[in-house]
What does this fold into?
Amino acid sequence: MTDGPIGVLFVCLGNICRSPTADAVFRQRVQTRGLEGRIRVDSCGTAPWHVGKPPDPRSVAAARARGYDLSPLRARQLCWEDYFDFHYLLAMDESNLEVLRREAPVDYAGHIGLLLDFAPEAAEREVPDPYYGAGDGFVRVLELVEAASEGLLAEIARRERS
Ligand code: 4NP
It folds into this structure.
């Protein structure tokens, strides 16, 4: 992996609900701390179904109510280059984690794991897929992603110092 900013890639299934939310929330945290030049943020899905589409309007609305702007984001699918461009590949759930591990080059030296490993205080280990569920699922996604964003930033800061 090349020198330069630390790359963080959030990964879900469709890249229209959970990972775009994580992308916007974490990006805002990074900007607030003036770390845009040090940490690069992106998101993708493991499935191709929604490639090119904007985030789900329900995710956009829930995020906007908490001060995050998802509107510039467009869905894309996980690709081979992602393993060379990103140091952290963070899955929203176990099934997407499995895809990340299965597709990885054997010598991938970055971190592949669950996003919520960075929110040990949360009851969940996976960010529940809100796509087919009730509206409050989108708020829960935001709460979990906000909790993990703090832990993830702390981890990256520790790594930068060491
Ligand atoms: P996401 O949610 O993985 O959080 O973007 C989903 C979006 C679309 C579908 C499933 C989950 N889908 O079946 O189309």
About this structure: The chain has a mean pLDDT of 96. The radius of gyration is 15 Å. Residues 46 and 99 are 7 Å apart (CA to CA). The helical segments are 18-32, 57-65, 82-85, 94-103, 136-161.
